[in-house]
Amino acid sequence: MGNAESNVYQNHLSRFLPEEQSDIDQLFDTLSGSSGSAGAKNAKATKKTVTLAALQAHIREPLPEQMSARLYNGMRSIDLTGKSSGLCEQIAKEQFVIFMSNLLKGNADEKITIIMRMISKTEGPVKGKQIQEFTEDLIMSVVHVLNYRKELKGWSLENTRDSTIGTKAMASQLLSDLKLADGTKPVGPQLMETSFDEHAIQDWVYRVPQISVFLSVVIRQGLHVLHSLPDQTKDIVNLVPGCKGVKGRGLVSLFDIPSIMYINSHLPAELQHKWQLLFSSRLHGESFSQLCAHIVNKGPCILILKDLDGYIFGGFASHTWEVKPQFQGDNRCFLFSVFPSLAVYTCTGYNDHYMYLNHGQQTMPNGLGMGGQHEYFGLWIDSDYGKGHSKAKPRCTTYNSPQLSAKEDFTLDAMEVWAVGDLLEHTGTKGKKSILDVDPEAQALMEMIGKPRQSEGLREPLEEDEDDN
Q1: Which pTM value belongs to this model?
Q2: CB of 48 within 8 A of CB of 28?
Q3: Nearest Cα to 429, choosing from 407, 460, 392, 454?
């Protein structure tokens, strides 16, 4: 290795702390030792290299085979000589370190050559179809490795929807940000056949932060390197929120792992660390009174519902729900779709009709709504539980969302509400209050429907404040 090459290598190495350098050295030694590719000793040192077979053998369980091959192609793309004389079959230590440096510490410009080669083994522009396959592989690898390393924080592949469906939906959403040099965004079959050059992919990686975050997770958790060191960003730490309230209850959530990651990334940063189940129609019954009893005065939360046609959608409420005939919330609220497509719809600024919850009034609509206006909500669940609507012609004025349900007026199949961040109530059993104690309107409502104030049926069993994982 010449002086120029040596300087480049040292510059990349210097990005890592001494303990990180040691971590990388140990990993390379393990990979090169198992590859059997050590060259003859010369005056300087033994030249060790890593082969595809050695890499695949090392990460056979934590990562899918196709991702191992993509990582290998990314490592091979590092050109040490500047002559670009074709890809070598074995990975040198310098290539390995520069690969780690660019993907874990680099900017979009430094990542792009590697990502292009991970998308396609051949140089030049890549097709939309190839980008889709890469993105799906990347998302599925993140789910796979987090599950393998037991890093899903109380979520599991058993207590959530099929992640294969969620992976395809998330990949489609991320690909929707691909655009050509003239700013056009191909869609559908046209997108699959469109060629994108390096500049287009670099722009995409810069604007879609999930790609870099997911690559970092795949490397750190897949190769089990630098995974416990302090430079991890909050993007990685809070990629999956902690899950509470489902352990031992036999519930399969309406969310899948990819949609949890995607929706969580749109929440305010201080709320991304934990989700706690407040209400499930499958656990608590199909009752608007039960819904109110479980969500009022519990802090910010996410509601998700499924209609009888299988569409899954919901909204994020930035303020605690209160029963009152006025709109509430602020511009951090949003609506979202999970199936058949994954998308988040944020506030337009057109009006402040973010959240609405009312019951037992004769002059105002009774139900739960988000966005739009009375009788024409972006998302509405009627107090006559089971009925709802999503009206948006052409779009919801508050959130710019389309019709979220299969039919404008829908029938509810299932619903969940998750508190996000730390619960508004004090944890622990002493002095813990029911919403019947703190919300006089809800208390009056219960009395109207013949429930005594101390109705134990409306009080959630006390739950120890411990993680479910």
Answers
A1: 0.86
A2: yes
A3: 460
